[in-house]
Amino acid sequence: MFLTRLGSRSKAVVTGDVTQIDLGDRQNSGLLEAMRVLKGVEDIALVTLSEQDVVRHKLVQAIIQAYDRYNRRQAKEKNTRREYDGKSKSRN
C-alpha cells in the first residue's frame, strides 16, 4: 500500500468514485474498506462530494441524481430480499 511509503512532511490525495465500483457482490472494494478503516484517523480527511459539487451541464447533475435514486432503491430492495430470505429460512 503506497500510504505506508509516505515520508515525513509528505502529503497525498487519493481519489475515487464509490458509484463506479464494478466488483461482484462477494468482492470487497479497497476504496470502501480504506474509507471505513481510516475514518477518524488524525490528519486524514475523507471528503464526500454530491451532485451539488458537479460544475458541469445541468443534464450531468440530473443524471447523477437519477443514478443516486436508482442506487438507493436497489439497496433498499436488496435489504428487503435479505430480510425476507432470513425470515423464510428461520421458519424451515
Note down, in words, how this protein is organized.
The protein is mainly alpha-helical. It has 2 domains: 1-48, no CATH class; 51-92. Helix content is 47%, strand content 0%.
How many strand elements?
Answer: 0
Number of domains: 2
Order of helices and strands: HH
The global form is flat
pLDDT below 50 for ≥5 consecutive residues: which ranges?
none
The end-to-end span amounts to 46 Å
- The overall pLDDT, averaged over residues, is 81
Helix content: 40-55%
Could you write a compact summary of the structure shown?
The chain has helices spanning 30-38, 58-91. By secondary structure, the protein is mostly helical. It has two domains: 1-48, no CATH class; 51-92.
Q: Which key terms come to mind for this protein?
A:
92 residues; mainly alpha; 47% helix; 0% strand
List the helices and strands and how they pair.
Elements: H1 30-38, H2 58-91
